[in-house]
Amino acid sequence: MKTLDPERFTAYIENTARSVIWDYELIEPGELVVVGLSGGKDSILTLHLLSKFMKDFDFKLKAVSIDEGISGYRAYGIEAARKAAHDMDVELVESSFKEEFGFALDDVVDRYKSGCIPCGVFRRYLLNKTAFKMGADKLATGHNLDDEIQSFLMSFARADFRRFTKFGPKLDRIHPKLVPRIKPLWKIPERDVGIWAVMNEVDVHFAECPYSQTSLRAKMKNYLNNLESRRPGTKLSILQSFEKTFKFHKKQIEMGECTRCGEPSSLNICKACEMVEEIKKEESP
């Protein structure tokens, strides 16, 4: 088995991310980029890369961590996020489901078929709300190549074509309160992110969320990994196919504001407020 050279491998990671930022104009000079920092390998690599690129692309950098409230899991990720932010001298702002909504994910997960359903809704809501309060021009997430094609195929399987507007390395600002998201790891496979973390002995939270195995994403991930093992290059081909097909044909969803909380929403009442209301009704005597 051929031994990987740490310097060359790290250079490949950095050059791939740098080219995505450059080619897709993810960051403009003078902007404040806030990283969604979970403490996992993807978000910590994103922070490492952006911290290194700050001078080259002339931007400011902060981070935000969300505590969903998952017993025996999230605390370790938060600690890894704190350490990474401290080591790179990046300001970290922390928020939580408990503070914002009055309950932790563990408290409400049994109401849903998968814990990923409420977590996805509330996490996206709180990441955007917190990043906007921080004055962010861009919200950088750790979505890698695998994440992108999993989401694409899940939406395709559900015939949820509205979600196609949310794919790609950069999302446009479609509402004043909706911080555009960027994905510097868009062309980096998940496996390579893990190799980078181990090879460079970076402290990350490797454990998988205990609720993740109940999701459609977990099934799609296993299927794609099996396919990739039999036909190497399949994942990249899917991403390239998606990019060629949808890159120049995106119709943006019209965004208004939720009548309850005032946050950006394509509906009169945003999904987060709708779910909070349902949860509180069930909790009432």
From TrEMBL:
GO biological-process terms attached to the record:
tRNA wobble position uridine thiolation
Q: Which CDD domains match?
A: CTU1-like (cd01713)
One GO molecular function term of this record is: tRNA binding
- Residues in domain tRNA(Ile)-lysidine/2-thiocytidine synthase N-terminal? 33-163
Which PANTHER family does the UniProt record give? Answer: ATPASES OF THE PP SUPERFAMILY-RELATED (PTHR11807), CYTOPLASMIC TRNA 2-THIOLATION PROTEIN 1 (PTHR11807:SF12)
An example of a Gene Ontology cellular component annotation for this protein is: cytosolic tRNA wobble base thiouridylase complex
Protein name (database record): CTU1/ATPBD3 family protein MJ1157
- Is this entry keyworded Transferase? yes
Presence of the UniProt keyword Transit peptide in the record: no
